[in-house]
């Protein structure tokens, strides 16, 4: 039934261009009725004045001035209502979007025209293609009917709508002969406070109505320069995950995250030296195997269920300043890291093991494509270059209209659907102190897997999950020749700043 009665929204018509004028007239009807009533009461005096009697001139002048003032006050009030509605995202705000789209289509000749003969010659008549608009929850949805002369143009309208409304395209819905673009507008109003952000049922609400379902879209890449809010965003993730599970942290620069090492809950959970980071990744790989074994041997084992079914807490590994670590590795060390990192990223989801990698610039030398593509959620904070956005979100989003705006914590987020959208990371008020908040925790939430021993059979099963194709990817990524060629291409690429 839903397929038969798919609601596209209200159809946009040519007369929508003039609706503001009609609404002003509509709002002025009460004043016009009062003015008409006053003139009706004084019609005898008006007739007398017309016949040349000056006795009521002063009264009629006052009456006329009163009518004019009343009419102007009503018109001013009408414009005030329309303006406030636009500012508050009301009806006239939605009408304005339809009017802007109409203007764009007409100016760019994306309408059909035909000439009609009249008594005075010919008259050009504009015919709009079928397009619809609706507001659905927090999204503005524009639907275009395909198959006409502008078929190709309508399939490329996503970036145009983003630029026109300064919004973010979050979804493109295709149906036979229809394409719907769903945009998220007025993003800053959806910003949450740090105290509101929680992990629940495998999901984190990062902005109002915007969820990262880490159980379904695992692992995250975070990029951003100095002063963009990257560290506070990582602190937010640490806070959220340690409330429900275990967090392991690597900080090769021994800076912002390294200071957590002395807090009670983080004892043994924060590493900074190269060898310690090796061991953290290898221990996390072993933890993944143990968690899979625990699930398989559980009395309520059910095929297809993930870690949450067995009441296991998530296990999150956060590596900040990844480039500072990865760039120091030689060939053998790179192979040692990738040998455990790729299985963690590719296979960790069902066992509840997740990787979060943060760095300033995710180029191929620091983060090979095979890794970057499987970090499904992606976040960029601060001002990035055109190349920086391309490295973070990939070639599929090269036509995305990325706009650099000022403000700490502002950036873009891809929650795993392949469509980046504007992000305002959770607001941290002045009276909120992360170190004080972290000090409230005595320990992480974790299960004891020490009694579980990994056998050769367990490793074989994990190797079966890690296919020969995956092994070829690792070999390709650690190839010095591959790294050299990739870096040469990056060095030749221009790093154009977006203003």
From TrEMBL:
ATP binds at residues 224-231. Residues 207-390 form the FtsK domain. Signal peptide: none annotated. Keywords: ATP-binding, Membrane, Nucleotide-binding, Transmembrane, Transmembrane helix. The chain crosses the membrane at residues 21-40, 60-82. The keyword Cytoplasm does not apply. It holds the Pfam family FtsK_SpoIIIE. This is FtsK domain-containing protein. It comes from Enterococcus alishanensis.
